[in-house]
Amino acid sequence: MKILAIETSCDETGVAVLEVKNGKFKIKNNLISSQVKLHQKYGGVHPSLAKREHQKNLPLLIKKVSHNKIDLIGVTTGPGLDPCLWVGVNFAKDLAKKLKTPLVPVNHIEAHILANFINRGLSSIKFPAVCLVVSGGHTQLILMKGIGKYRILGETRDDAAGECFDKVARILGLGYPGGPAVAEQARQYSLKIKNLKLKISLPRPMIHQKNYDFSFSGLKTAVLYDFKNRKPKERRSKKYIQAMCHEAQQAIIDVLIKKTLKAAKNYKAKSIILGGGVVANNELRKQFKEKTEKEIPYCKTELPFMEARGKMRTKFSSPIYIPASELCTDNALMAGVAAYFNRGKKKNWKKIKADANLRIDTKI
Ligand code: KG4
Ligand code: ZN
Known about the structure:
It is globular, with a radius of gyration of 21 Å. It is an alpha/beta fold. The two termini are 22 Å apart. The protein has helices at 36-40, 47-63, 82-99, 108-114, 161-171, 178-191, 217-229, 232-235, 238-266, 282-295, 332-341; strands at 2-7, 12-21, 24-34, 72-78, 103-107, 129-134, 139-146, 149-155, 271-275, 304-306, 312-316, 320-321. Helix content is 39%, strand content 21%. The relative contact order is 0.19. The protein binds 5'-O-[(R)-(carboxyoxy)(hydroxy)phosphoryl]adenosine and zinc ion. 5'-O-[(R)-(carboxyoxy)(hydroxy)phosphoryl]adenosine (KG4) binds next to α5 and α6.
């Protein structure tokens, strides 16, 4: 089966073609046209500019992939930015009509989760699983009883974790997108930690609460207060910026790991699945693997852990599934995988709509 997928939920225009053969996904094309440079001057995504860019880039990307023998078209219908989603949806409808191909609506959050199946056998992940999806727009802990069976256990009550990274970066003058910039400054701090006397302490919001909800807007405010209370010379110094990035990143990581592992223990999860742009963060990936192995002994299995890139590890590890970094941030490949698993829900192109607030526990 050959699938063409389209993703335009935020600021990346994505088109991918993949083939499913012998229980494996074979990647034919995975094209992304990033709008990062355009949005940099606004310090965040500007929806109407993003819409215009998707309209310009989508036809160019589609021309670069083969339309031959496509069995299914998948398109992200939500959640995301409404004007951006509609560009992809309308484009996919026209294409489905032209190619006389069925169209499958894709939930963007489910696509982030299912990105873990790329380069892995289709039956490799065991359920129930606890999934953490952390992106620029969402922070959700989801109990997954199987593909298509989701229950949201908790989510952010205000800012998403990625949004917090972006806002901290903006306060410190590091530009957009904030995640990679904050991560790099934090790494610099770690390299010289022994020589640095500056130590900043930020709160870990809701870390000890019984529920599975999150809150990151207070953390951003704590960064802002600390920043404003410093003398201008100090707050512009490398030393301060690096120490602040290190502490803000660690505060976010601590909360995400604590709540995810608590849910995994309580629901006796057989797998932990991560997804979303924030999971591209190297420190988060490393600490998640270490803490899962340490704190969830029943998760340790004799199954060899496969890196998303397909390399077999010699060491046995806990079943925590983390996509390759480039598949954590928005891409159409994951939408193609989600379209495959939802192929039973293919609809006539006339019936497909965008839904900016689509939830993973709602049937499309
Ligand atoms: O999933 P994604 O590409 O788009 C949405 O669906 O929102 O996530 C984008 C978010 C941004 O907030 C960005 O700052 C964050 O992911 N991000 C990171 C890293 N790379 C991207 N956050 C922390 N560390 C990173 N290395
Ligand atoms: Zn996303």
